[in-house]
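Run: sequence + nicotinamide-adenine-dinucleotide -> complex structure.
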Amino acid sequence: MLLQNHTVLITGAGSGLGLGVAKYCKAQGATVIVTDIATEKLAYIAADFGEQDLLLACDVTKITDLELCKQHIVEKYGRLDAVIGAQGIFDGNRPILTMNAPDLDQMFDELFHINVKGYLLTAHIFADLLKQNHGALVLTTSTAAYAADGGGAVYTATKGAIRSLIQQLAFEFAPHIRVNGVAPAAIGNSQLKGPKALNLDNEKQSDIPKDAFLNLFQSISLLQQLPDATDYGEIYAFLASKQNKIMTGQTIVADQGLLNRAVLTQH
Ligand SMILES: NC(=O)c1ccc[n+]([C@@H]2O[C@H](COP(=O)([O-])OP(=O)(O)OC[C@H]3O[C@@H](n4cnc5c(N)ncnc54)[C@H](O)[C@@H]3O)[C@@H](O)[C@H]2O)c1
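>> structure
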């Protein structure tokens, strides 16, 4: 049990990666604080968690929400061992020249607020609690931060920013808090939405039929499996746990071998 006696906060955990990771952490002995902006998702998943856990509405772009969440954690547990950041939205993989400039302007603010500022504010607000317990911060970037065509320019820029933020926060928070990240390539049961700026906030990645996504992914990744959110659980749980005594400032690229090839030979 990697997370016995650990209290772990997961942001953006109403569906997809965050939910899978929260369930995995719980199975590894953690008490979990599951937060998301989408209250209907929290109501839907409530039965998966117990009385010792907390499910809280929290918009990570709002300082007041984050502080309220912290207050609940202090009152109920008096401690926090790890924060796992998993929220995000996508840009619909749109080339920038297919949009007009005002839409691009608006979409930039929307994505950077959720995908970057949300992680930065969360880190700032929970750092003192984490420091008290020699805790861990685990952030979510993407293979989009390493190679083109993992998203459009704005999504890719947000994920590159998180990759750099992991390094800088590991430096600023050392030696008290270990800061690491995970860069997934694809998540089978994701609900990842697009931005309001492009009217894509009702379109989800899960609307892509799984078979079509799997076929595409199989044709380009080495392991030829489309992982589910819980498949990422072990990596996050290890980085969040006190078992990790050896890594800070690093991002684990969990990509099924996607980036480990130049596309010359068909498998
Ligand atoms: N889906 C993929 O293939 C993929 C690949 C690489 C990386 N990622 C990253 O994984 C993370 C999780 O995405 P997912 O695919 O599980 O999508 P998801 O939509 O299922 O989960 C993201 C959650 O973030 C929440 N959220 C959005 N804005 C928020 C805010 N302001 N405050 C709090 N919560 C907010 C959403 O309500 C949602 O529940 C994201 O950072 C995404 O960029 C996803």
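>> summary
The chain has one domain: 7-254. Residues 11-12, 14-18, 36-38, 41, 58-61, 86-89, 114, 118, 140, 142, 184, 186-187, 190-193, 205 surround nicotinamide-adenine-dinucleotide (CB under 6 Å).
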